[in-house]
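Suppose you are handed a protein chain with no further information: no name, no annotation, nothing but its sequence. What can you learn? This example shows the usual starting point.
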Amino acid sequence: MKQFNLDEYLAHPDRKVMTRDGRKARIICTNKKPAEYPIVVLVEDSESTETEYCFNKEGKLVKNKDHQLDLFFVPEKHEGWINIYRDLFNGTHGIIFNSKEEAIRRVREMPLEEKPLNKYLATGKVIWEE
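A reasonable first move is to predict its three-dimensional structure. Written in structure tokens, the prediction is:
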């Protein structure tokens, strides 16, 4: 899980948040006064109840101390396509493409001077969370 950060949240307000211990959380306000704890959040206690808490800009309930209710971004799943090569220099590298077709097109369009250095093996789908 990625630690909550107010600046990142404000840049992407559609990102979901949760507590360290896995509870659902809803951000209600990000500019409450005093500014030391400006984030107002409703944390789910059960399916039918929520409790209001205030957090600092780093999503901490208690300054400089870890707490089970600290905020984190809910991991988001991503997927893409990569080309797998056997590199003469035993190195690994990769570029993630949005589609299988785009990845295969990259193999076909590889500059001639690069082709002897890499042996194309396959194109594969990758799924990851961040």
